[in-house]
Amino acid sequence: MAMKLRRLSNALGAEICDIDISKPMSESTFGEIHRVFLDYGILLLRNQNVTREQHIEFSRRFGELDKHDSLPRDRHPDYPELLLVTNRPNPDGTPSESRYTGRQWHTDLSYTTTPALGSLLKCYNLPEVGGDTLFANMTMAYDALSGGMKKLIADLHGIHLSGTRKINTPEAGIARQAEVMKLNPPIAQPVVRVHPETGRKALYLGEKVKRFDGMTEDESKPLIDYLNKHATRPEFVYRHQWREHDILVWDNRCTLHQALGDFDETQLRHMERTTVMGTPSGRVVEAG
Asked: Rounded distance, CA 249 to CA 63, Å?
């Protein structure tokens, strides 16, 4: 029997209805799930009241999981495969360092030489209102460019930076940026990437990209700004309104996403993410 799907938007995304990932799953059933993942870029799985072990086990069906060595402060203390995205204070009462995670348009781990294939984010706690996540279809955005623009950007490489998130204080931000830059030096990634499974071209940049390789920031900024603005036009975007026990699965190779900070930060927003490792891409460049 074919899976029951509900499209999430015209741009991308589909909900797979009536599925429980905690139950045994055949290879043929997972094959259908994977096909929907490739076709729609985002999968929504509602009402997944699963354990952390079950979250990790299901995620592994998509590929090898990252242990988040590039983000050691943000991973779960007992499960390195899980990255915390939370505003819950630390045990010593200090603010969570991941409370502002994802507030820029980005694709996961683009600032490493093994960018993420996919991410599986589970929602545990939500504020009363707000805290949505936006997603943009980068294949659709690429396809909508003119032939001249496609030719212009065909051989460009964007420099992806880690450590660009907002930190609790300016002083902490400077120290944290130095730490993450040491762990994750700047990486040059192609602005146009070919999806290794679908063969389709997609834009690959976001707000972690400040310049093109071989160009200054001033020279790069107008084109980077244009491409980011183009890629996040409303017709290419899906806005996800979370529910507790949602698991959202997205393909980092052809999407951008951004977590919105439009909620009362005294209210708890707690999520946990696994990251599926992708194919090697990019190269380390000197800062500057």
From this structure: 13
